[in-house]
């Protein structure tokens, strides 16, 4: 098995959280970066605030990124390769951790300067099929002063309605070569505003098909 899969399995088993080297090779990460830049400049990413449902306005107060979902079987080579590798990770995690994850949903995300995603969870109780959250950062250059960290909170020591009072478990700079994986129900987390454009490929392993 892929050696980096072992590290992710161990970290998820022990802490529910992995922050470390990406399973995507550097060349693929840079192809994904080129891809999301092209999609972004062609206005192919959509704001979370765009939508017909009543929740759209509510959502825009929480998050201000723009996203584009990948197809089930992407035609674009970098997307296809990323999905193949992430599906392999899904299979390895299922085997080692009995996750029962039957599918992966993936989207590119673009946070323009100042955009953020306020403290939230990726899954609430049984209402959501998400079991593991994955984030692959794409920016080849990132300075500490650019901000845009993902902050992950420890939810065991504070009530969920006051996540800011909870200790920080991790602060992750969104730089290419880094990935994050965590059990979707375990950790409140937020994306801080950045001074520059912030790009990622984000996904969830899901219990449903
Ligand atoms: C999300 C999320 C984290 C990040 O999209 O739900 O929390 O670092 N993203 O982009
Ligand atoms: Mn999230």
Polypeptide structure, described:
The protein is α+β, with helices and mostly antiparallel strands. The chain has a single domain (3-206), classed as Jelly Rolls (Sandwich), CATH 2.60.120.620. It is built from four helices and eleven strands. The chain has helices at residues 3-14, 26-41, 55-62, 77-97, and strands spanning 17-21, 46-47, 66-69, 103-111, 117-120, 130-137, 150-153, 168-172, 178-183, 189-191, 198-206. Strands 1-9-6-11-4-3-2 form a seven-stranded antiparallel beta sheet, covered by helices on one side. It is globular, with a radius of gyration of 16 Å. Bound molecules: N-oxalylglycine and manganese (II) ion. Manganese (II) ion (MN) binds at residues 120, 122, 133, 189.
What global shape is seen?
Answer: globular
Please give the count of helices: 4
Radius of gyration over all CA atoms, rounded: 16 Å
CATH C-level label: Mainly Beta
User: Could you give the distance between the termini?
Assistant: 25 Å
H/E series: HEHEHEHEEEEEEEE
**Domains counted in the coordinates: how many?**
1
Helix content: 25-40%
**Uncertain residue ranges:** none
Bound molecules: N-oxalylglycine, manganese (II) ion
Largest sheet: 7 strands, antiparallel
Strand content: 25-35%
Helix/strand-derived category reads alpha+beta
Q: Kindly identify the CATH topology.
A: Jelly Rolls
Mean pLDDT: 91
CATH architecture annotation name: Sandwich
